[in-house]
Amino acid sequence: MPLKRYGADCALLVVDVQNSFCPGGELAVPGGDEVVPLINHLSLLFENVVLTQDWHPRGHISFASSHPGKQPFQNIDLPYGAQTLWPDHCVAGSHGAAFHAELETERARLIVRKGIHAAVDSYSAFVEADRTTPTGLGGYLNTLGVKKVWLAGLATDFCVAWSAIDARAAGFETFVVEDACRAIDIDGSLADAWMAMRQAGVKRLRSDEV
Fold it and tell me: What is the pLDDT of residue 170?
């Protein structure tokens, strides 16, 4: 049986499998490295594989260190809305921003770097946190004729969820591969994210259903 089960109208979006989000990283997601073998297998099934990378300039507005007196995981209001503050992570060009060493990246057709603007965060692979600035990913997928998108990666309740919801808003049939993701889960954020994804029409499945 051929490995490629999905054709040109399908894409796998691998979200932020980076050192900062894996054990030992500045913003480690529990079990973050456990998704790597599953994602490597999933990537063999898709003709179109896209990777995303958080790629923050130093002093990014989402870093608690950029706001005197503030601590990581506190919330503040910014001109574009509420913002959770994070430890410094995925600083452009740093070890933390690099992909996990065991993640197979050679099949990727595109790498989308997000959070690149110092004054606005970007959880979603499609639209930045100001909800008006596109990353260009939607246009890229549309140009390829992609109709369906599967998502895997880190973290379920932030960058994966926002990307999935925005994929639906952009008109793609959207699936999140639950066991190929891991969550931060701050104060019930995982349950809230699954509810928001379900309400947006995102479908939830496991890797053996892909």
Answer: 97
* Known catalytic membership, residue 114: yes
Among the listed residues 22, 90, 159, 181, the single catalytic one is 159
| Residue of 16, 33, 157, 166 marked active site | 16
Confidence (pTM): 0.95
pLDDT in tens, 71-80: 999 999 999 9
Whether 9 sits among the annotated catalytic residues: the reply is no
Where are the chain's structural domains?
A: 6-56+93-209
Q: What is the pLDDT of residue 5?
A: 85
Tokens 């480690």 found at: 28
Q: Does 148 qualify as catalytic in the annotation?
A: no
Sites in the chain below the pLDDT cut of 50: 1
Q: In this predicted structure, what is the pLDDT of residue 1?
A: 47
CATH class of 6-56+93-209: alpha beta
